[in-house]
Amino acid sequence: MKAVWYDKIGDAQSVLTLGELAVPELSAGEVMVKVHASGVNPSDVKTRAGARGALAFDRIIPHSDGAGVIEAVGEGVSTERIGERIWIWNGAWARPFGTNAEYIVVPAEQAVPLPDTVSFEAGACLGIPASTAYYGVYADGPVEGKTILVTGGAGAVGHYAIQFAKAGGAKVITTVSGPDKASHAETAGPDEVINYNKGDTAEAIMAATDGQGVDRIVEVEFGGNLDVTNKILRPNGVVATYGSMGDIEPKLPFYPMMFNCVTVRMYLVYLLSKEARDMTVNGVNECIKGPSFKHMITEVYSLEDTAKAHKAVESGKLIGNVVVKI
Question: What's the CA gap between 272 and 169, in Å, rounded?
């Protein structure tokens, strides 16, 4: 099979290799997937570049997310799954063989049925961006009638989070860094878009909520936004956070947060419990069935151009998801 791999960490153009590898062997409880699309996430490029530590395996086929068709099943897996369109989560998490190849073998539960209305390219965005968004919105229960703040609404996770929260009946406010990102975030259908580089962000959020504040925050920059958080979060509010790159060791204002009875939920989508994973994959699939649901696929590359796909993600200039079409 054709695949792209690396056997040392470093620059994408230098270490990513296109070549032929043996089709992976199928074991009990697993499925073999003919990959049609492979999602490229920031975590994939950071791992390849060495930001996540030394090389974990002798050779790594990158990318945790993907979508395709089941071609074979191992012992204990129903043969009725052969021919099923699926999307993959954790394809390269703690494993050397990710989705950036013609075939991948994964445990059967990591191959989730893909609705017929959803393209393989969109399916390759569900394992990390969409799942991170859904869990952040719903980890603490239903959102109907609640006010949700989604920070970074133009980002891949934020764009999904806005739609998931609206689908659940929430009022959604989102923050962005400028007019172009505001226009992009608006396509997800939030009730209010606030440019955090223009005026007082906390005041704008309070004005948008008639002075009541928000019930929950789906947070991409926990440390950098703490000051705003403590001004706009209602008592018994929740901050569900999946990032803090601007301030990786934030200092918590403990007593102000305690006296507001704030819950801080830090999560990593790779490590969801079975119960949380089931809630997430089922919820994602239910939401994306509708014809009006929007996926943010910005650029699509060929397998041969995987290095260019990695560079595009690393640039930080793109708004949306990057996919490799296999």
Answer: 24
